[in-house]
Amino acid sequence: MNDLHIILITMGVTTTLVFLSAVIGIRWIVRRGWKNKEATPTPIGFGILTGGTAVVLCFLYALFVEPYWLDVTHIKLQSAKIPSGSKGIRIAHISDIHSDPQARLEEKLPSIIADEKPDLIVLTGDCINSPEGLPIFKKFIAEVSKVAPTFVVKGNWDAWYWDKLDLFSGSSAIQLHGKQELTPNGVPVTIVGFPVNEGRDPNPAGGIKALEKTLRTTASDGNFSILLYHYPDLIEEAAKNNIDLYCAGHTHGGQVRLPFYGALVTLSKFGKKYEAGLYKVQNTALNVNRGLGMEGSIAPRIRFLCRPELTIVDVEPAKQNQQVSN
């Protein structure tokens, strides 16, 4: 069963439950008010009415509460590539802003990031839902990039729908299309990133072949290496080439999650395998950020059991006989 089937089934079941609940509720109110003051729904009707009410309340929570309730997640990694005695580096990872014409978290997030005192900030794509959201996003990225060196890559929405829009002018954010070296806190770091089309281009002279070549040379320079790519779909290539930290987004953590199951939909080629959070694949740490915004177009702007996320990654010197990445 693919993601589209899950979406359609979930929408169908939810709509049916709410409709039946409304019908039973109206029928009960009419009977109670006009005919029989003591009338009560049947057990089945009561169950449907209760379930429908719960669905409506959950929807209102998902629409008006959770999209504005930021979760700041802290992750600690250790690496032998961080010099002994160094305090390491702190990375703020954000993704999937999906700015709409009305701001949600964009106005307060820069100060929240600043309070975390990151050494660098990374954004793994999907910046806006529509051109009308561009002013909101540009103000946001301009403020964020004042906090610390900021590196960005384009996601599928940026590359497919808004490729002609100037997303990053007016900010000091650096759009990656290849690799760059830097030394935050005196730590040698190589950061490499690609827009989303680069990893899906079937052209053997470019696309994935060129990307893999860049990954090989990145891992061989001895610096702590960071890969930025919107999808988590390059984890096998990253692990094969010993990338230390791979930052991705795209899945939104499912955006709507169920207890004991997690994401209903991820739109990743790996399905639920890398739906959200930190994963260790060989010597590579993969962090899949749940994102800050929500799917655009006609999709309802809801989150359920999947709060928007700012990830703070602290990379420290490896303790003896203990390390997360090479």
Model description:
Helix 1 (3-34) crosses helix 2 (43-64) and helix 3 runs parallel beside helix 4 (134-144). This protein folds into 2 domains: 3-64; 70-317, Purple Acid Phosphatase, chain A, domain 2 (4-Layer Sandwich). It has 7 helices and 14 strands. With 326 residues, the protein is of the alpha/beta class. The chain has helices spanning 3-34, 43-64, 109-115, 134-144, 156-160, 207-219, 235-240; strands at residues 71-79, 89-94, 120-123, 150-152, 174-175, 178-182, 189-193, 224-228, 245-248, 257-258, 262-263, 277-281, 284-288, 309-317. The protein has a 6-stranded mixed beta sheet with strand order 1-14-2-3-4-5, with no helix packed on it. The chain has a 6-stranded mixed beta sheet with strand order 6-7-8-9-13-12. The two termini are 38 Å apart. Helices cover 29% and strands 20% of the residues.
Quick summary:
This protein is of the alpha/beta class and 326 residues long. It has 7 helices and 14 strands.
